[in-house]
Write a structure and sequence with these properties.
By secondary structure, this protein is mainly β. The chain is built from 3 helices and 20 strands. The strands form 4 sheets. Strands 5-4-3-2-12-20-19-18-17 form a 9-stranded mixed beta sheet. It has a 5-stranded antiparallel beta sheet with strand order 1-16-15-14-13, with no helix packed on it. Strand 8 (124-125) and strand 9 form a beta hairpin. This is DUF868 domain-containing protein.
Length: 320
């Protein structure tokens, strides 16, 4: 698949208004087909921007993954490669690794000292690799509590704060913003997830499905793409094999959200190249109402460095 951004350049496939039904929140209820099993989520990566009390900014990427034989966690700082922290939570010989503490020494003179505390021993999961309850992950940078994930972190964070105060260490609480979330899934053409498009917004149910539907009450069927938020249809793309790339703007929590899709490989990947039919890519990206274009010039995008935008990127492999 080509670079995702180039798919929506001036040479991209256009989508006619007659093929799309789009509104901020449609009155049409989105019904999930009962005979189709949802896709399986294989990996999730979230990128957070941390602003310390010293105004130092650090990007932290937390990745959860799961396969038939492995489940694990990786943490990266400022896009380091390879990740300085990896954890395998499935190997029975390393059960102790489900709970622990690790200190990462600075890699250079200007790097930060990082301490990671985690407890996944009682973590509970749903269908994906990311725990949803009974766990915590705390990242401390330069004796400052940075990223806190999970529902059991309160006691750990309080202990650390008291320990800092007893040692006369002046520590603050970093400002955290979620910049992006990337999800990889495989299986059917039905996919569901949850997304919070801004720090002050609510968590929404997002569902994407592709199905064969009749046109104009005739016998001919064609693929139709539906995107639903909180069980309401926000975008409906007919004749998807022709309109395999496109973009529309929707409104969520008072924000402009650009929805972009590229399902080319679902229809045009040679069957001999892979056992699957290729990846489709979906992106939800928030932007300011003052932005008149989908992709801004880099120099213009850098004018407001304090503005936080969020993007949800979904890679969906159709294997059935």
């Amino acid at each position: 698949m080509r670079d995702f951004v180039t798919c929506f350049s001036e040479n991209a496939v256009g989508v006619s208004h007659s093929s799309i039904s789009c509104s901020s929140y449609s009155n049409n209820a989105c019904i999930s087909p009962s005979n189709v099993a949802p896709s399986t989520q294989n990996s999730v990566s979230s990128v957070y921007k941390l602003v310390l009390s010293t105004l130092k900014q650090i990007l932290v990427t937390v990745s959860w993954c799961r396969s038939h034989s492995n489940q694990g966690l990786a943490i990266t700082f400022n896009h380091e490669d390879p990740p300085p922290f990896r954890l395998n939570t499935t190997n029975s010989r390393f059960l102790r690794k489900k709970k622990g503490t690790k200190i990462l020494e600075p890699f250079s003179s200007d790097s930060s000292k990082v301490e990671i505390l985690w407890d996944l021993s009682n973590a509970r999961y749903e269908s994906g690799p990311e725990p949803v309850q009974g766990f915590h992950l705390v990242i401390i940078i330069d004796s400052e509590i940075g990223l806190v994930l999970g529902d059991t972190a309160e006691e750990t964070v309080l202990f650390k704060k008291l320990n800092y105060r007893s040692n006369n260490i002046n520590t603050g609480l970093a400002k955290v913003s979620l910049l992006s979330r990337t999800e990889h899934c495989s299986g059917s053409t039905l996919y569901s997830t949850k997304a919070q498009f801004c720090d002050t917004g609510t968590c929404h149910d997002v569902m994407i499905r592709c199905s064969m539907e009749k046109e104009n009450e005739g016998l001919f069927k064609s693929p139709v793409l539906c995107v639903c938020i909180d069980k309401k249809t926000v975008i409906r793309v007919k004749r998807l094999q022709w309109n395999f790339r496109g973009n529309q703007t929707i409104f969520v929590d008072g924000l402009l959200v650009d929805l972009l899709w590229d399902v080319h490989d679902w229809f045009f990947t040679p069957s001999s190249s892979s056992s699957s039919s290729g990846y489709a890519v979906f992106m939800f990206r928030t932007r300011s109402g003052m932005d008149s274009r989908l992709w801004l010039e880099e120099k213009n995008a850098q004018k407001d460095k304090d503005r936080v935008e969020f993007s949800l990127l979904i890679y969906a492999s159709k294997t059935t």
